[in-house]
Amino acid sequence: VLANKELPDGYRQVLIGDKNQILDLLKNEHADVNDFDIVHTSEVIDMGDQPTKAISQKPDSSISVGFRLLKEEKIDAFASAGNTGAMLVGSMFSVKTIPGIIRPAIASIVPLEEGGISLILDVGVNADCKPEMLQQFAILGSLLMEHVYHIPSPKVGLMNIGEEAEKGNALTQAAHPLLKSMREINFIGNIEGRDLFHSKADVIVCDGFTGNVILKEAEGIYSLLKRRGISDPYFERWNYENYGGTPVLGVKSTVIIAHGISNAKAIKSMILLTKNVLAAKLTEKISNAFHLTVAT
Amino acid sequence: VLANKELPDGYRQVLIGDKNQILDLLKNEHADVNDFDIVHTSEVIDMGDQPTKAISQKPDSSISVGFRLLKEEKIDAFASAGNTGAMLVGSMFSVKTIPGIIRPAIASIVPLEEGGISLILDVGVNADCKPEMLQQFAILGSLLMEHVYHIPSPKVGLMNIGEEAEKGNALTQAAHPLLKSMREINFIGNIEGRDLFHSKADVIVCDGFTGNVILKEAEGIYSLLKRRGISDPYFERWNYENYGGTPVLGVKSTVIIAHGISNAKAIKSMILLTKNVLAAKLTEKISNAFHLTVAT
To answer: I want to staple A169 with a disulfide (CB 3.0 to 4.6 A). Which of A254, A289, B130, B209 is the partner?
Structure first.
């Protein structure tokens, strides 16, 4: 309902879930039921459900139905704060990966102290990566940053454990020269953990294990600050509610995954992010970039 | 000079470096020169020097001389806040690794919100690890925690990206069952980034790439807090000055590496840590543990 007040003409929300619960909620919020389409579902994929099984065993859950509607092009984008694993499985096996892309990735926003944001990816889909995957993350992150967050020619950094090109583990050592050789991105070299929050880079690439550890450490510290009653305008920008989640980058349609603990404000951010990703034609831009990459 | 006031009888500091500078400093601090031995050196390994070359090309630097004195058993322990790489090279090639140990490791203290500390290792020596190395880090960290920090039967956690045993990347997936099978440690399962600062584990094991990223992210956030004027008794415990660095775990003698930016308080902590590691006979305990491990 909050998002609906801010969505421009031409966008319409399709609410997928238990119809009675949806109607009750809309009534409680004094919303006009005609502003929404409602698709009733009778099953629920829980947070603890095994992702691959859940989608096939619960075909009338909101996640399964959402991916079916997306595949049938009855909706243009699908966003959910439900089971992340099931959302990823649906993205890869129902929507499918864009040809040329090894694996999709998800990104997280990093608020910078001096204002603005950077992006870090992958943050969890790909625990083990080949160097060529980091190259692709660099392209995916750059396109997201440029077209959705309006940063032209985004600077790309490689998360590493030293500033020098030769530093790192086998993955980053192999990825560094590959990233440096790419003309389609603006590679600026290595980024260290201590530079994360006043990064020289707009896009930081890493394997999904490292990205997930980085993200969860920051989440842990944010909780600590809250619990200790520390309030600060910069750290307030760490609040996930402001960002609305991440697109699944590299699949054939627009899928947005939000945090499982999302409240009303976070869901509103998720819906507006979905609109921004659609308006930016991000999927098309990614397809074109990889079509060119594969062709040349 | 600060450390000397707290060192018990039977410990004597040998200061290795430019004799005139040392004498000037002792005079400025109104210290008794007879409380110290001084070994003059004429060369300096800079922070930017290439570690392997530096030790052979600057044989009269404090780091080279320190390792020589240690090898000749003229000193019992060697501590420095100099070039970390050179300290590691000296540890591995001059002091040498304890038989049975694949690679030495270094640890970092993690102050816990509820009081007390945990340890995380490796934090930088081994960017790429085999699962068997994480097993060894579990033993090294447990012995350090038990004998130097006096936590009996320390609980060991595996840094991972999910709570479930099967989660993770290829390394942590392979390491989990190996750690679980070890009777010589108290393995409690996976630890996530968000649990770092109120960890259920006393010792957290990870590869050196992950550990280094975690450490530097925390350092970056600590600097942010300072820069933003946020003061909090818990976060004050993040100050590296309190901990004095890390032993090089798994080499044949006592070597302590401190942070390159160490001030007087940090150097004092380094010297007292050196004393604690010596008093705990940590090297002997590690040798015994690996002797047993290799034998059985």
So the answer is: B209
